[in-house]
Amino acid sequence: MSRPVVIAHLYPQELSTYGDTGNIRALVQRLAWRGFDVEVRPVGVGTPVDLAEVDLLFGGGGQDSGQAVVSKDLLQRGPAIREAALEGLPMLLICGSYQLFGRSFTTVTGTELPGIGVFDLTTVGSGQRMVGNIVLETEDLGRVVGFENHSGRTLLAPGQQPLGRVTKGFGNDEDRRFEGARTGACIGTYLHGPVLPKNPRLADHLLLAALRRRHGVQELAPLDDAVELAASATAASRPQ
Ligand code: GLN
Q1: How many domains does the chain have?
Q2: In terms of residue numbers, what domain contains 208?
Q3: Is 9 a catalytic residue?
Q4: What is the CATH number of the domain that holds 65?
Q5: Average pLDDT of the residues of the chain
């Protein structure tokens, strides 16, 4: 029997706001529709995980307090995660996880949480929350829709590729230009929603990267995404 596709879910207790766990459900379902077995491994503070066995790494958003709880544990995993990122392990990091996968996150009260540096960016909490529906245009994944709610302003270092350009909403900061970050097969974004059910192309981009790497799959069987695309169009038409 073929090996299951292994998805590691970082800190499901501390970092999972606005339905971010729905991203895991979307990934599992899209794999199941295509006949793959899937295993989801929750990774809490102190849970050992061998990234050599993992096909896709996911982390959700959370409050500053939740980020503070996991930050030390994440730092210890930093070298292994950075190495896995360099070796092409696909990752999706939302909001609070996205911030901690940068170089640092300074909360609005001035506490600095060091990040693990998968992305070359820094985030500083502000007094203004950036809340609402958000739409981006990406170079190769088309339009991406979601919902954002963060006080952190994220500044990309020169050369750090964003996920997309904001056409509605805030994104990384109130300049409203760039959203998210992309390094190799790793994607960081502020988009909740959850983001993957309404953005099947993004979901399949991550799945294909995972399946190509260690499952010998070169292309994905197409799915009927009529419902997902209708949800995406509705989300895109909403006011900010
Ligand atoms: N604490 C972060 C902020 O408000 C992350 C919020 C989130 O993950 N939704 O900027």
Answers
A1: 1
A2: 5-237
A3: no
A4: 3.40.50.880
A5: 97
